[in-house]
Amino acid sequence: MTFEKPKRDSVINVHVRVEFARVGEIDTMNEKYQAEINVEAKWASQDNFTTYDPKVNWNPKLYIENAIQEPKDAARYTVSSEAGATVITEVRNIKGAFWEKLELQNFPFDVQELSVTVASRLSCEDVKLIPLESNGKIGFRATRTFVDQQKWRLFKMVKISNEPSYFKTKHEIIKINPLEPEEEEPPEYPKIVASCFCSRKAGYYLFNAFFLIFLITLTTFTSFAIDSKLPQNRIPATCTFLLTSVSFKWVINRSLPTVSYLTSLDLYSILCIFFICLLATWHAIVGSNWTKDEAKEIDKWAVISFGILFVLLNVYFLIRLLISYIPIFKLSKEEHEYIKKNK
C-alpha cells in the first residue's frame, strides 16, 4: 500500500482497519453487546508538518454509527513520511455498548453478526473509506476473555463490508398527492462495517425448554387412561396441561425481545399447545358421541393417530434443528480458512 499526496479539493482516501480487542456480554433482550474496539485510520495530508493536531489539521471525523450513547474514546496520532507524502495514522480505542439487530428466527440455534459501523461525518465527496490490506481482525485477548463464552461461541474471524446487517432497503412510498414535489435524498456518508460472528450454545435451551415442553405434551397422553365416556374428568386434566404449557411459554418469552416473527422455540411451543387443544377437543367429541363400546374402539385409533402426529411433529423439528446448524458449519469452515490465510 502506497500513499500519494492528494490534490487540492479532491477526495481523500482514508485506509481503515478495525480490531475487536474484546467482546463482552451479548444482551439478547435489549439487542446490544459490549465491546472494546481498536480503529486504525491512515491518510496522506495535503500539507507538510511534523506534529498533528486534529483541531487544526484536516481530520476524517470518524465515529461509530451504532454506538449506544457516548462510548469511551481515546485517540492517538503519529506522523510519518512515505514516498514524499505526509501520512497521518490515527489509532482510536473505543469501549462501550453497541446496538445490533439480532436475527432470532432460529433461536436458540441462531448465529449472530456483531458489527461495528465506522462512519465519517464528512460526505462521500470529501472522503473515501478504504479497508486496509489486512482488513479487520479479532484479537487473541478477545477470544480468551470472551465474557459470554458459556452461552456463545465466538468465531475467530472478521468480515468487512459496506452495509451493516441492520440496513433496510428502501420501500416505494405511495403519495396521496401526485403533484407534491419529491423530497431530496439526504447526502450519503462513507462507512465501513466490520463484523465478527458468534453462535449460541443451545444446550441450556434444549434441556430446559424443548425437552420440558416435549415432556409436558407427551404426558397429555395419560388422559386416555380415563374412561372415554367421562369427559368431565378427561377435559380438566388436559386443560391443566394446556395451562402449564401456556405459562411455561410466557416464562421463556421473558428472556427474548418482542420480535414480530416466531422463533424456532416459539413455533415448537405453539404447535404443542395446539396439539393439546386438539386432544381436549377430541375428548369432548368422544365423550358426547357413540355408545360406550364404539367410543372405546374409536378412542384406540385416536391414540394411535395422535401418537403418529406427535412423532411427525418432533421429526419435523429435528430436521429443522439440523438445517439450522448449516450456517454454523459454514462459519466454522470460513473461520478455518481465515485463520490459515492470516497466519
TrEMBL record:
GO molecular function: extracellular ligand-gated monoatomic ion channel activity; transmembrane signaling receptor activity
Coiled-coil region(s): none
Keywords: Membrane, Transmembrane, Transmembrane helix
Topological relation to the membrane, as annotated: Multi-pass membrane protein
InterPro entries for the chain: Neur_chan_lig-bd_sf, Neur_channel, Neuro-gated_channel_TM_sf, Neuro_actylchol_rec
GO cellular component, one term: membrane
UniProt subcellular location: Membrane
Keyword Membrane attached: yes
Protein name stated in the entry: Neurotransmitter-gated ion-channel ligand-binding domain-containing protein
Organism per entry: Brachionus calyciflorus
Lineage, top ranks: Eukaryota, Metazoa, Spiralia, Gnathifera, Rotifera
